[in-house]
Amino acid sequence: MKRFFLRLYFDNAMVGPGKAQLLEHIRETGSISAAGRAMSMSYKRAWMLVEELNAAFQGPLVASARGGSGGGGAHLTPLGEEVLALFREIERKARAAGAEEIQALEALLAPAAPPAAPQADVAGGK
């Protein structure tokens, strides 16, 4: 299976597929905790990543409100939408620009070994 991942490293931030996916889930669910659950990520980890992103850019990418009588929630700010769109566009262009070379590299790979069969217990059941 061929997968393409792009991770951008800046002096004060790293943006990659996981953070982009977290932002997409926040946009879809309206919740940082639900976004984390969708990615099998702890609430604490999801919040930590959001805090990293919010601190790294000129303004917050995610705005959140604590729960309470009106309920809580989270949404992408206009800057968050812009950062996500730019990252996905960079990914798309990089994938397209490198498609021929990626295919050539894949053609040079050795065949994948089949999964190993389970070994029978030959030690007499111990």
**How would you write the strand order of the largest sheet?**
1-2
Note the main sheet: 2 strands, antiparallel
Please give the domain count.
Answer: 1
Q: What is the alpha-carbon Rg in Å? A: 21 Å
CATH first level: Mainly Alpha
CATH-defined fold name:
Arc Repressor Mutant, subunit A
Helix content: 40-55%
Outline the secondary-structure elements.
Layout: E1 8-9, E2 14-15, H1 17-29, H2 32-38, H3 43-56, E3 62-65, E4 73-76, H4 78-107
Antiparallel strand pairs: 1-2, 3-4
Helix pairs in contact: 1-2, 2-3
Please explain how this structure is put together.
The strands form two sheets. This protein has a two-stranded antiparallel sheet. Strands 3-4 form a two-stranded antiparallel sheet. The chain is mostly helical. It is built from four helices and four strands. The radius of gyration is 21 Å and the shape is flat. It has a single domain (8-100), classed as Winged helix-like DNA-binding domain superfamily/Winged helix DNA-binding domain (Arc Repressor Mutant, subunit A). Helix content is 51%, strand content 10%.
Descriptive tags:
single chain, two-stranded antiparallel sheet, mainly alpha, 4 helices
